[in-house]
Design goal:
- The protein has 339 residues and is mainly alpha-helical.
- It is 79% helix and 0% strand.
- The longest helix has 36 residues.
- The protein starts with a helix and ends with a helix.
- InterPro entries: ABC_transp_permease (IPR001851), LivM-like (IPR043428).
- It comes from Bradyrhizobium barranii.
- This is Branched-chain amino acid ABC transporter permease.
Length: 339
């Protein structure tokens, strides 16, 4: 080894050890979070609370996957909800038509999503800014229209009727509400951990470079189109996981899962929680579902209330809640060090 190579190895060693330590810490936090969520039924008999956590799992996976595009890559997708709906419908149809074990249907749904996302992404990621956003929206409306028009296969505007079969596998019975709750929490934690590893990997920092200056990244030898396509497909897979959780929860799939409003909710969730922090979308998910559940109890004009909340975050905080909190702590720390 030359002196230059030796010096380079010594420089990279602390970075690699720090990355490994960060990875182990993330795994430990994930295990603790799962243990807390899984033990929740032992301390409460509230079915409403468990249902709320399942819904948070579905929408949290979807919103965090959207942030891989918006926050880390700078790709604002108005049609990301198509993969949420695609996951729900593909999983439900496979279970209804083929009757395969749930893990097989899960893997098959991810494979279908990956193929469709690769085709759509190959077209969309060549476009920039608003053109990318609206072409993804166009593809979502195409998929939604297909669901409505192919009534003999998808059930049309009535959705998938007859429920989704839930055969027992490995001693897990998803027809049991507690089993479904624990499985949803497991998928949420595994999905978040996987996305965290992607965001903190060299590939994740490549995405940040593309977000900040795609031209410079290209000059440095990065295949920008391939990196964008890769993250587009990865984000679609995690959104599809959220759709499968929702399909199991409601035992069906409905056209609303693939409608443009789902993508709008994803953008809204990221605005609420923040796109600069990894857990911002999860915070936004909890806030949005709490707002919906609370406001609808008191007024039918919940849209007005949500609009006021959007204005507060957009014009008042000018960032998501978790981003605001993180910046506030950073300013406090900097002020303390300056004394």
């Amino acid at each position: 080894m030359t002196e230059l190579e030796a010096g380079r190895a010594e420089t990279l060693a602390p970075v690699r050890s720090g990355a490994a330590l960060q990875r182990y810490r993330d795994v430990l936090i994930a295990l603790v979070a799962f243990a807390v969520l899984a033990s929740l039924p032992l301390f409460t008999g509230s079915k409403a609370l468990l249902d709320f956590v399942i819904r948070c799992s579905a929408y949290g996976l979807f919103a965090t996957s959207l942030n891989l595009l918006v926050g880390y890559t700078g790709l604002t997708s108005f049609g990301h909800g198509m993969f949420f709906g695609l996951g729900a419908y593909s999983f439900g149809l496979i279970m209804q038509k083929l009757g395969v074990p749930i893990p097989v249907a899960f893997v098959a749904t991810l494979a279908i999503t990956a193929v469709i996302a690769a085709v759509i992404g190959a077209i969309c990621v060549r476009l920039k800014d608003i053109y990318f956003a609206f072409v993804t929206l166009a593809f979502q409306m195409l998929i939604h229209s297909t669901i409505l028009s192919w009534a003999s296969f998808t059930g049309g505007d009535q959705g998938l009727r007859g429920g989704i079969p839930r055969p027992t596998f490995l001693g897990i019975n998803l027809a049991n509400h507690i089993h479904l709750y624990v499985a949803s929490c497991a998928l949420l934690i595994l999905g978040l951990l996987a996305m965290r590893q992607i965001a903190q990997s060299p590939f994740g920092y490549t995405l940040r470079m593309i977000r900040d200056n795609a031209a410079r990244a290209s000059f440095l030898g990065i295949d920008v189109w391939r990196a964008k396509l890769t993250v587009f497909v990865l984000a679609a897979l995690f959104a599809s996981m959220g759709g499968m959780v929702m399909a199991l929860f409601v035992s069906g799939a409905y056209p609303e899962f693939a409608y443009w409003t789902i993508s709008g909710e994803g953008i809204f969730i990221n605005m609420l929680g923040g796109v600069s922090t990894f857990l911002g979308p999860m915070v936004g998910t909890v806030l949005l579902l709490l707002l919906n559940d609370t406001v609808t109890r008191f007024t039918e004009y919940h849209g007005i209330v949500l609009g006021v909340v959007i204005l507060f975050f957009a014009l008042g905080l000018r960032k998501g809640l978790l981003d605001f909190v993180a910046d506030w702590f950073a300013h406090r720390r900097d002020a303390g060090e300056g004394r």
